[in-house]
Amino acid sequence: MSGWVHIFLSKSNPYTYSEERIFKSFKKNIGLLRDCISYFRIKFDPRFEGNRNKRMESAATRLTAKINTIDHKVERDIFKETLNFFKHILKTNYFTPHKTGLAFRLDPDCLDPKYYPNKPFGFFYMIGRGYRGFQVRFRDTARGGLRIVMPKEQGQYESSLAGVFDEVIGLSYAQQMKNKDIPEGGSKAVLVLSPGANRKNAAIGAVDSILNLITQDKETGKLHHSIIDHYGEEEYIYLGPDENVTNDLIDKFISLANNQGYRYANAFMSSKPNAGINHKEYGVTSEGVNVFLDSMLRELEIDPQSERFTIKMTGGPDGDVAGNELKFLYREYGKNARVTAIADGFGAAYDPDGLAWEELLRLVEEECPISEFNPAFLSNAKGAFAIKADTSEHVQKRNNLCFEVVSDIFIPAGGRPYTINDNNWQRFLTDKGLPSAKAVIEGANIFFTENAREELQKKGLLIFKDSSANKCGVICSSFEILSSLLLSPEEFLEIKPAYVEQVINKLRAWADLEAKILLKEYHERGESINLVDLSKLLSMVINRVTDLIARHLEELSDDEFNSDLYTKIIVDYMPEALLEKYKDRVLRDLPKSYQKALVSAEIASTIVYREGISWLDFLPDDAIPEIIKTYIYKEQRVAELVQSLQGLNLESIEEITKILELAGARTLTLLDHSS
């Protein structure tokens, strides 16, 4: 109770609503505290006998009346938030005899819209020995990584804990915007560990407790008998790795899911080291980052194949995004790419002539941080250095690097959320008042606050936002989950090389589509909108259309949904390596809810990338499903027309074919709906 109240009330005043003050209020009002616990027991104790709902209602009414009589506002607020917590818990493993941690599934109506205008679909609160955290998702079918935050001292811990929900909901909403191309919506999990807590034990405790609340008995189709379920719907959770989640933990989470009997245990965790697509091994996020980088360089009229350009980065050579981005920079552009500055958690290096590629690639290969950069590889240029963050002077020098070094491109590929924020964004400007980089490719999530982005764009900075630039990691994880829903680990390993290659090709193609449509619309709209707002608008339009289609599909009978129109979309979405051996499983074994989510997302993203942001954005909600259905049929008709033109000896055959392919489906759709 105190943990919840502290996290949610400290937003308004962290000193007034400290945990010490909360405990004092509990002790002062011990009778009211007992009433709160009594209400919780009525709601969730499996041993309760009688009319549970009626008793809950009367207990809540009495509690509300008593809380309203408390004279002191702070104490009254504390108990109001306690009751808010208890009233919105839908299920908990509190009364489960054998558990490794506590978990609570919350109704998102508990959130104050003043602070959280973007309401999620649902979330879990986890608390155990040495940790507290949340898992938030914005759709029923959703996925996102688990991040473990490990503060080194008590002050950092208290600060991290107070902001943990803001961090997780910010990350999960960014993920929702990023996941626009795939069946899963956005989610994220963040655990904050107390100083000295065991990382592995905490992660296992939190994940195992979530599994308690989503694993149904195969015979009864219900949760464990110790769990009173006020939600009543089957839930599937898909996790992925983030900060401090190592390969051994990934394997352990799969093992936990199997041990509890979770229906899709192999799909519970993505980026599996063997029977999965490990992000760091294949550099899937960085593949997308580099596609966006390439488009941005050409926007700046830099031909990276023939001209030199400069880059500054955060994130070390040992990191997933930063390390792989260094590899891909050299792979694509060789020494034309000059990385002048890198800062990570352990140190920093700077060389205005460009840090030596030989040494950078060694660090990547050996998974070493930038603090291990050998100073012997520095040039004689003025100011070049390689330091460890082992003194206050060096820490400050490291922290200033991303602000002060002037470069063509800045790639934040690591670092804490909101490193560049409302209070320090001016430091990113040079003495002349211009941004210290011409453009930013956000390889890391929420590195900038919204206001910092806005102000820097006013100064001329071009930004490819995180929900666009680093989206390929989540797309890859989606394809891994897809394969896990259909194949055993052994079957996946047989097709893995071809499957991974085909997935990476899809990632790069999707990244290229988005980079090009953002720049196209940016030029067409002039100065009326910036790239970040266009990225948000693109995600919102695709997500809006996806949700409208999903709602329409839910209304269809099984026979209507199993029509050729939708089954073709599902089959066409699959990588060829999967279809070659397991095509029969796609429609048979893929969960129906997943099929509908896939169809919804694929239709929405394909049409928006092809036709632009504006067309569907201005259509009313009730018109979209029917117009889209017509569009799909007309698209098939266009394909037939193009096929019929093949072999005809017409002078303008290529031009006619191109016009049909580019605008035929939309034109035919508009003709049908011209009224």
What does this protein look like?
- This protein is an alpha/beta fold.
- It has four domains: 1-88, no CATH class; 93-269, Rossmann fold (3-Layer(aba) Sandwich); 281-470, Rossmann fold, CATH 3.40.50; 474-672, no CATH class.
- Helices cover 53% and strands 12% of the residues.
- The protein has 26 helices and 14 strands.
- The chain has helices spanning 2-9, 19-28, 30-44, 52-68, 73-88, 154-162, 164-178, 199-214, 247-260, 279-282, 284-299, 320-333, 357-366, 392-404, 450-458, 466-469, 472-486, 489-525, 531-554, 558-561, 564-573, 576-589, 592-611, 614-617, 624-645, 653-672, and strands at 89-92, 102-106, 122-128, 131-137, 142-149, 185-193, 238-241, 309-314, 337-343, 347-350, 385-388, 407-412, 437-441, 462-464.
- A seven-stranded mixed beta sheet has the order 1-2-3-4-6-5-7, with helices on both faces. A seven-stranded mixed beta sheet has the order 11-10-9-8-12-13-14, sandwiched between helices.
- Helix 15 links the parallel strand 13 and strand 14 (462-464).
- Helix 3 (30-44) packs parallel to helix 5, helix 11 (284-299) packs across helix 12 (320-333) and helix 25 (624-645) packs antiparallel against helix 26.
- The protein is globular and about 80 Å long.
- It starts with a helix and ends with a helix.
- The model has no long low-confidence stretch (mean pLDDT 91).
